């Protein structure tokens, strides 16, 4: 039994900052509301909030203890109502260490412990402990298996791969972060627009309408260049010093310049392997390799799947999988694709919105009709790509699915990982002997779902028979 311990006192600061971060919009709203009258009361209220937050953070830190006892991690917490949580070593799936900027200044780390039933949050999270203590917990809770990879003459070399600066820069240059950054900017503007006078919007709209189409295009191009550069910096900060190592039955991933993360992935939790080719990377022959992992919380939003390697050449994928995940190593064979009669569905789905938009803009704003027409042509081409890339392969117990939304993705999974297979047909499909299929596996945040549409009904029935073992 280990001695009962507390988190590092810096956890008080982290808890206080977390509470203030959650109240940031309320604080900003209060400032604009009371800046003319009652500013003194506003300042006093902020001081009171900080003092109360500091007291609450201190009590939470003081009452939070942990220890390892009888093959279990025991955590006690709660200021007024005491709670105890026991996590058996046998239930622990992964233990991840994360170091933010403040963590690294104080030489601390955050320990996240995940089990098979963690759901949307980690089973336990130790906000701030000394890095050496984090490694000790990681080693002890993994039943004594040391996760620090060291080579010696008596032990075979562990497969390891790192990313070069050139590849990392290329990953940032061709990442899909442009849309994410624009979405964040749009969300931020929607939050602060209530503080901007309505007259300002009216004046701005009139000014934009009065500009020439070439000036507007140039301004938009400049904004995109700036956002693109921000995306490069973000990718390099996120995946800097990326290293993946295979050790026994686990993969260990270390990445991050400002926030350093150490992620553990047990091989038995991997449900599928994906190969992603974005529109920008595909012509250059580069892909991203990722894994759909059962449960866990280390990836959310754009990281709902765990990236195994940010960018590599298409021809390097086979050797990478053979070295780190030999069960998922593949050889290209003939794909079962879509029939020609399915093409019209893909073209219509991709272009209908921009077709209607082109008509509306041409009628109301003929000066700007060129833009939606260009977008219409782009999405017609995208619809053709979606049609051309869709397909599947069956090799024994292994299923390969290929599809495209914007990026082309190839998923590799095994029969025993598939949770459900569903076939759908509407009346038009039945007349043309077409159908849609829906394949689901366990993944983060509730699972991963794959939809392949307008396949020949015989192909879907063949895959359905394979899934239900009716053809055996």
From TrEMBL:
Pfam families: bPH_2. Residues 61-140, 244-321, 387-453 form the YdbS-like PH domain. InterPro entries: ABC1_TM_sf, UCP026631, YdbS-like_PH. One of its GO terms (molecular function) is ATP binding. It comes from the Bacteria. GO terms for cellular component: plasma membrane. It is found in: Cell membrane. The chain crosses the membrane at residues 12-34, 40-62, 168-187, 207-230, 346-364, 370-387. Keywords: Membrane, Transmembrane, Transmembrane helix. It is a multi-pass membrane protein. The keyword Secreted does not apply. PANTHER family: UPF0699 TRANSMEMBRANE PROTEIN YDBS, UPF0699 TRANSMEMBRANE PROTEIN YDBT. This is YdbS-like PH domain-containing protein.
